[in-house]
Amino acid sequence: EAGVVQSPRYKIIEKKQPVAFWCNPISGHNTLYWYLQNLGQGPELLIRYENEEAVDDSQLPKDRFSAERLKGVDSTLKIQPAELGDSAVYLCASSSGTGGANVLTFGAGSRLTVL
Amino acid sequence: AQSVTQPDIHITVSEGASLELRCNYSYGATPYLFWYVQSPGQGLQLLLKYFSGDTLVQGIKGFEAEFKRSQSSFNLRKPSVHWSDAAEYFCAVGANTGGFKTIFGAGTRLFVKA
What we know:
The structure holds 2 protein chains of 2 kinds. By secondary structure, chain A is an all-beta fold. Chain A has strands at 5-7, 10-13, 19-24, 31-37, 44-50, 53-56, 65-68, 75-79, 88-95, 105-106, 110-114. In chain A, strands 2, 4, 5, 6, 9, 10 and 11 form a 7-stranded mixed β-sheet that branches. The mean pLDDT of chain A is 93. In chain B, 0% of the residues lie in helices and 55% in strands. Chain B contains no helices and 12 strands. In chain B, the strands form 3 sheets. In chain B, strands 2, 5, 6, 10, 11 and 12 form a 6-stranded mixed β-sheet that branches. Chain B has a 4-stranded antiparallel β-sheet with strand order 3-9-8-7, with no helix packed on it. In chain B, a hairpin with a 3-residue loop joins strand 10 (87-96) and strand 11. The chains are: A mainly beta, B mainly beta. At the A-B interface, strand 5 and strand 10 of A face strand 5, strand 6, strand 10 and strand 11 of B.
């Protein structure tokens, strides 16, 4: 079974340009997460979806970040316009349920470099 | 507020030596605790988890962790480290506080020397 698939793996853009990341979760996993991982730090939640609904987007900078999960499967995270400080790894994860006991399965991440 | 502290930014051990990575958490109720490992260029992979019951839990790759409520700790151990264990290790707590959250520590990078 394929794991969580993310693309692109690497992206280099100039500041003020837009960028989008795509995630395909594990089949049957209803919950999808986008995490931000800065260099030398642990992952920080940006947004969590339960099916199509964004149930926790409190940490998503909504002035420049947006996300969608159409049909409750794949998801896209967009940044427009990108800033230098957005350089980081964007991790997607999925799980089969919700709650504190949930085990997350992560993708390999999308590394963004903003010049 | 819930938080996870990993006091060691990096640790170096010799191959074959024992390993202990420290983790302290802050959470008002009984926590769900996890250790994840991240190899270079890879996503995080679950090593082990603690939900309840026996406070010593076994995981994959020969790792174990012990939950100590009195110390708010969940330290990761391995009796004999292999070169392939070199990676970044993250402790995490799963909390249900007005919504589910998994909160990660900053990580400990493990270096293994021959």
